Amino acid sequence: MGMSASRDRSSEGNRFLEAVRNHALSNPQAIAYQVDGASDVSYGQLWELAGRIAQELAVAAPGRMPVLVYGEKSALTVAAFLGCLRSGHAFVPVDRELPAARVRDIAAQIEGATFLACVDVPADLVSQLSGCVVLDARGAVSKDVPAPGPAPERWVGGEDTNYVIFTSGSTGRPKGIEVSASNVAHFMDWMQGFPVVSEGGRVFLDQAHYSFDLSEYELVGALSTGGCLHALSREVSEDHRSLLRDLAGSGVEVWVSTPSFADFCLADPSFTEELLPQLRLFLFCGEELRPATARRLRERFGRARIANSYGPTESTVAVTYVEIDDGMLSAGTPLPVGRARLGTELRIVDRDSGGHCAPGVSGEIVIVGDTVAKGYYRNDEKTAAAFFEDRMQDGAACRAYRTGDRGRIGADGMLYCEGRFDSYIKLNGFRMELGEIEGALEKDPLVSRAVVLPLERDGRVHSLRAYVVPERGQDLTGMDLVKELKLHLSLRVPSYMVPRSFRLLESLPLTPNEKVDHKALRGL
Amino acid sequence: MSDTHDANEVLSRVLDLVEEVSGEDGLGSHLDDDLFSLGFLDSMAAIELLVGLEEEFGVSIAPTELPREDMNTVGKIATQVAARM
Fold this sequence. Notes:
The complex is a heterodimer of chains A (524) and B (85).
Chain A: H1 9-12, H2 15-26, E1 31-35, E2 41-42, H3 43-60, E3 67-71, H4 75-86, E4 91-95, H5 100-107, E5 114-117, H6 123-126, E6 133-136, H7 137-142, E7 161-167, E8 175-180, H8 181-191, E9 203-206, H9 214-223, E10 228-231, H10 234-238, H11 240-248, E11 254-257, H12 259-266, E12 281-284, H13 291-300, E13 305-310, E14 320-323, H14 326-330, E15 339-340, E16 344-349, E17 363-369, E18 375-376, H15 380-386, E19 387-391, E20 397-409, E21 415-420, E22 424-427, E23 430-433, H16 434-442, E24 447-457, E25 460-470, H17 478-490, E26 501-504, H18 518-522
Parallel strand pairs in A: 1-10, 3-4, 3-5, 5-6, 9-10, 11-12, 12-13, 25-26
Antiparallel strand pairs in A: 1-2, 7-8, 8-18, 13-14, 14-15, 16-17, 17-20, 19-20, 20-21, 22-23, 24-25
Helix pairs in contact in A: 2-3, 3-4
Chain B: H1 4-22, H2 43-57, H3 74-84
């Protein structure tokens, strides 16, 4: 893809994998992974598991195509990611919570996909995977063979694709974002300079699903510095009682999450520094950090730094960083997301003229730098629409990405985010296209038309509402129909995309020029 | 707080609040149905509800105080609120 062909893979290698291997060799007993209900896994064990999986993949999945890793919060799933990389395959993280139809839509985009299962595969999913080679990671690691794993020459490296993360697409088909090993290495270099992280060997909260690139924050941050991932299973992170019980013994020092998850924890008065006395850095990304959230954290965790950051998956996790201080909190204005990392330049561009905006003027955020991804997987059209080749200020050729985010550079030189130019929204940190939900609803034979709108309170999206015109001549009405619609939708899209509330309508209100009248809908 | 009139009033105000948080009208005929399994509340909405209960009744219930099965229907929520008033 473009500049990638001219680079030599072997010359750059995979510095992330090398870092993990070095920790496994120099300190094999150190704990790499802990999760409720399973034994702790050391660096030595993790590297061994990854080697066995890589060995199996080298035989069963020749070539270098991406491999779907179907898993959950477990050391085996992380070992599977590493095993893919060590056998020359990009990994595609697919969380077991995703409905079968969604997994099928992802698998269908990868020719002759290999599907590596780290957990049991439900029967309704197995039947959807007819085009895939299905392998069991648990079988691979239980084989009684020595597993040095493939030689580093086979590893994913340089401009090779490191992972493909699928996110909601406006056309109703998830789109894959292709991030290279060199992107990850550049991101890693930057993150290793963060306070607390730079000390090495710290304990990181691992909460975001591996299907989201927010989780790369802690995967790269912890595993490249000899740190420990303290993972929260879905069950634990959704129930306050088990969550706070789990955190109490965790020793977490670096907290990585969306601000929404911190709000969820803050709802309980026992979420304080007495619960997490070692906690020294909160690292936020994925959505707006509101002053109210930062202020409450400051009150309860006086010793911890609170850092905000920003970046789309298309530029590898995050590209800005700032520590929130009391001055910012007392300003009564939205918080900045920070300054660009070394290796990234931010441009604010006028969408109409294409020219650069003056400081302080809002426009589209364009990211230029060495963490900008390769593009959208097997989608040249979408890639060309958002990615382009550009030059850094020093003249070096570099890749650039038009984010679709609105923002400005403040007088303090920091980036401030101000929302989106299109219909994509963030709900509790989850990125989604409303059009995808509408499309999925309209595939339901019970539905004639559907519109989905975000509901906001205090300038923040707190839930979704679907306005549905049911198909005529059916038995179900009212709440029974809503229940059925929610059930059907949950089989097509992830649960966080199922609107909390529904309104059933005879017809959709239209504006004078025959478009759906969103304003009138909101008034219903 | 055992007075029937008051208990009914608490129930009706809790119902209003749950309808507001869930965005769903007509929960009045589902007072004893599990709001989570019906999809009207999720873990984030449950937090919004607790904040609402504090504002409406001055009753503070920490999320860790009760297991979900004690707070999963309009009727049970009203009982917990009434017991703290």
